[in-house]
């Protein structure tokens, strides 16, 4: 059985972290970024800074609680910056950090790939469902 270290070495990477290793902290960050609400939030923030309610309207379907949890996790990971303005009522803006911009650009490339391939995906789903219906 191949170890995480062997996979890393075989891939030619000298990175100190390995997302395939159970205890690697990069797994948690990957989960924050690639989870449903994390990926949509990061993608939306790539368009520019947003206030909480603007972001909630942009990411349709996310609850206030889930968006809040997502933003906290992304802020903790250094992907999102939260800035509270000392106004009345308080104003809070969220924006991507330089790391967040890099992550968003890569994530948006994947999103655009998926969006551009949906005709193929829907055809594949139809074929799969048709073969399963006959069972």
UniProtKB/TrEMBL annotation:
Residues 24-122 form the HTH hxlR-type domain. The keyword Transcription regulation applies. InterPro entries: HTH_HxlR, WH-like_DNA-bd_sf, WH_DNA-bd_sf. GO terms for molecular function: DNA binding. Keywords: DNA-binding, Transcription, Transcription regulation. It comes from the Bacteria. PANTHER family: HTH-TYPE TRANSCRIPTIONAL REGULATOR YODB (PTHR33204:SF37), TRANSCRIPTIONAL REGULATOR, MARR FAMILY (PTHR33204). This is Transcriptional regulator.
